[in-house]
Structure formats: structure tokens, C-alpha cells
Amino acid sequence: MDANERELQQARAYLNGNAELRSAIGAPDGACLEPRYLGVGEHNLNYRFREPASGRDYVLRVNVAKQPFHSNQVAYEFAALRALEPSGRTPEPIYLDSSDGAPREGAMVIGFCEGEQLDFDNLRPGDLRCAAQLMADVHAVPVKEGCPIFRPDDPLRALFEECLGRFEIYRTSAFEDARITKWVEAFIDAAERATRTPRRREDCAHIVNTETLPSHFLIPGASARQAAGNAAASGPFCERPGWFIDWERPIVGEVAQDVAYFVSPTTTFWDSDFLFPQSGIDAFVEDYWRAVGGRFERGGFDERLRAWRIMTALRSTTWCCRALVTYRKPGAHKTERTARKLPIYLDDEFLERLAVEVFEL
Q: Are 160 and 316 a contacting pair, CB within 8 Å?
């Protein structure tokens, strides 16, 4: 039996043996909950299952690795989904289990969201506008007093320090490559200068995803995409833009962080061969602000977007450096995509592209 089959058996046993979970979704006694493998990320295993009485589909999300700045990953993500419920664009949080009896590092049940993952290699009319609408609708949710989401004093500087920590793990390992180190040290110098970009404290007031990967945007069918493409500039791009999923490490911060991450070459190239031209970046930024529709001010967004583009590229590069180390540990959680992409992200051709187009070196 391979590891995937063992994990699936454990998920099945958990779903059918947890009375509290079954009660939360209204599953009658004796009903069999049968999980199906949905997807694996760097931090979570995901299984889709159906409650037979209602016919409703759910997702069992099992955490396998924590993110920074908090000790209970699954509870943190669950709290974020609760805070974002008013947006109507994120999965419904239904059941949380961070007890010692939970699988791996904890689990939760959320509503299943229909839609197709955004695909940069096969963009259709309206896809990017749906993504802009989803981002804008989430960012417009007011942050209530007592919100448990981490709120760094200076989000840009905090991420810079996080990048330095990742790079130090690589630098002190047996896998350091002088070629890579030279590139990253130059990137760090440019990023340190970017941290000095003035910020407005009032701009750091939105729940941001911080990892706006295309796989986090589930886009609906053709009719909604057509509406997105044909909508007037004064109104929403579409009434049904889809769903914004995977809230592993949100913070209360600047919307420029999410927009910069979305258009970054280190993001688009992870899942595709697509790279935004500068004209495409400019167009997406303006689509995003039209989708915001005056619900909050633009503030210092334009000045900070450049800084966030630099920090996003540094974040991805230092993440890859650390992954060179962690992926060699026995029993480490791994994904095929990361193993395939790491050498490309750290070769001279890609690093030079970042140096010129993002870091402006």
C-alpha cells in the first residue's frame, strides 16, 4: 500500500468515526462518507466527500505542515474563513478539529466550491477580470475589532525578515551553491532598499491572502466569464466571479501584496509557462481597482506595488533555496510540481530574468 492509499484510508476512518463532524454536516447514523482525493499542496491534503442525505459536497482539509507566525495552522485558517464569510467568495467553514485526535496537524471541513482553477496557459475572456473581482471583494471585507488574523506592524519588512531566515537555512546547509548565493545576495540588497518605500498605516487594513496563486481562484462557467468580459467599467465585472480558496497564511496588510504576487513571474511560471508583459500588469491593476469600485481608497498602492513585486520575487527565490534543503530530509512532505520546478527557478536564465524585470539590477 502506497502513502496516498494509507492517507485515504485514514481520511475514510476519520470521517466515519467522528460523531461531532458527522453531526456538523447532518450525516444520519449509518451513512457512509467516502472521501475522494482532491489535491495536495505544500501544507495540506484535501479530500472531497458527499453527505448522502442532502447530496451536498464538502472538503476535508488535513494540515501536514505549519505556516509561520502561529502555532495552530488549521485553527488559524478556519478563523480566516470565518472572518471572510461576508465576502461570499470564500469556502464556508463548517467544522474544526485541532485536538490531539485529529489527523496529522489538524483538520477541518469546509464547503466544496465549484469551478475551474484559473489556468494562465489557457486564459479565456473574462478569466482575469473574475480574479480581479474575487480579490477586490475579499479585500473589501471590513476587519472587525478582535480579528485573530496576524497584523504585522510593517508587512513588507516582516516578509523581508522571513526571507532572510529561509536563506540562512540554505546558507548554513551542505547544499549551498556559490552561483545561487551570488544571485540571491544581490536580490536581498535590492529588497532591503525596497523596504524603505514609505507606507501608509491606513493601507495596512485588509485581510490579504499573501499567496494569490492561480490555483486559488476557481472560475465559473462560460456565461459568467462572458459577463465578466462585457461588463461596464462602472459596475462589477461579473455577479458570479467564482471562489477564492486556500487561506493558509493570510495577514491583515496591504492589498498591493496580493496584486503583486498575482502578476509576479515567480507566481505565473509555477503552474504554467505564462509571464505577464508590463502592459498586462498595468491592465490587471486597473481592472482590480475598477472591481474595488470605491469601497476603499487607493492610498499608497502604486508606490508600494513595485516594492511588493520585488519582495514577492525574493520570497519565492529564498523559498526555493530552503526547499533544496528540506526536500532532502528523510520522510519530508513533497510534491511532484516542486521537485520539477526547483531546478528551473534556480537556473541562471530565470534568475537573470528576475534581476532585470523585477529587481531592476
A: no
Vertex 82, ends 78 and 85: CA angle to 5°? 135
* Cell numbers found for residue 41: 499542496
> pLDDT band at residue 228, thresholds of 50, 70 and 90?
very low
Are 196 and 93 in contact by the 8 Å Cβ rule? The answer is no
Question: Alpha carbon of 250 to those of 31, 55, 79, 81, 210: distances in Å?
Answer: 35, 31, 10, 10, 6
The per-residue DSSP string of 69-119 comes to: T-S-HHHHHHHHHHHHGGGS-SPPEEEEE-STTSSTT-EEEEE----EE--
Tell me: the pLDDT tens digits for 247-256? 999 999 999 9
40 vs 234: CA distance, rounded Å:
39
Q: Which residue has the cell 526536500?
A: 327
Handedness of CA 4, 8, 14, 15 (dihedral sign): positive
The DSSP letter of residue 251 is E
Q: Is the pTM of this model over 0.70?
A: yes
Whole-angstrom Cα Rg for the chain: 21
